[in-house]
Amino acid sequence: xxxxxxxxxxxxxxxxxxxxxxxxxxxxxxxxxxxxxxxxxxxxxxxxxxxxxxxxxxxxxxxxxxxxxxxxxxxxxxxxxxxxxxxxxxxxxxxxxxxxxxxxxxxxxxxxxxxxxxxxxxxxxxxxxxxxxxxxxxxxxxxxxxxxxxxxxxxxxxxxxxxxxxxxxxxxxxxxxxxxxxxxxxxxxxxxxxxxxxxxxxxxxxxxxxxxxxxxxxxxxxxxxxxxxxxxxxxxxxxxxxxxxxxxxxxxxxxxxxxxxxxxxxxxxxxxxxxxxxxxxxxxxxxxxxxxxxxxxxxxxxxxxxxxxxxxxxxxxxxxxxxxxxxxxxxxxxxxxxxxxxxxxxxxxxxxxxxxxxxxxxxxxxxxxxxxxxxxx
Length: 377
What we know:
The chain has helices at 15-24, 29-40, 55-64, 136-148, 176-187, 207-213, 230-236, 245-257, 279-289, 314-326, 370-375, and strands at 8-9, 65-66, 71-77, 83-88, 94-102, 105-109, 113-115, 130-133, 163-166, 199-203, 220-224, 265-271, 294-300, 331-333. The protein is of the alpha/beta class.
């Protein structure tokens, strides 16, 4: 009886990890760079495609290693060109990835967890409970899948994905090590070569991890705020009970101070009718945001079943934006994209085997509307 050899998946390895892998194989460092380029610039599916590597080394690699990205279950394309992939990860759960084209830009929204452990009240992902963190290969694999969906990869051709946001399913900073590995590959010149201004990590506010992040990368940072005060945010974004706004903003200041260039934090604020979209909320938010170098992205709520929330009227959205602009805050309203394929912000669900059993709390017949609770505040 022969033992089954477990092959090492090279796809999610950082350049340093690849160097170490090839050193263990008795190979020179430049081999790691060659393989890195083949995987991430050319989209190689196998080592046999790597024509500038000797056949002997290709044969050796075929025995001990593999290039394995997650499985694409479905790809949907909406009328506005938005693409959504359902991707199966090891263990059977599925996550979703969305590409949003906008003129000469194409922004890819990448998932970092199957489900989410934070349970923000207005996000459909959190209602699925939590299964597990994605590996670095499963995170970076989403970028590779999106680029390859347009045809064979060409490092000399135009960029098919110009911007990446870690803003899909999951809280990226709760999967710190794997997300950082993937970010390094996104910005690595021998891989995808994206600018630090074009890779954005969005967090609900895991303060210790923000401080840790500034020690290892200078990726752009976005904060899912969604409320102008702690009382409201405690309900909408429960992690605020542990890391309130004052502590979160202090961490943002520390992060900006560690950057070598002048940048601002992107503040994400989902507008929900009658919850956080009133002029009084806008005025309070304006005072709060003056304490932080930032720009504001207003996101009209994208409905999903049994959420308990509704999208504000266009009049309410405009009134809120006008108050913010008058307060001197650079403000944009995110245009809803891909909603007919459930690819809009806050709609990503996937197919998650819930290990937390949280999803059982959201059976419609027993669910108390969070919106009703909030209106009583």
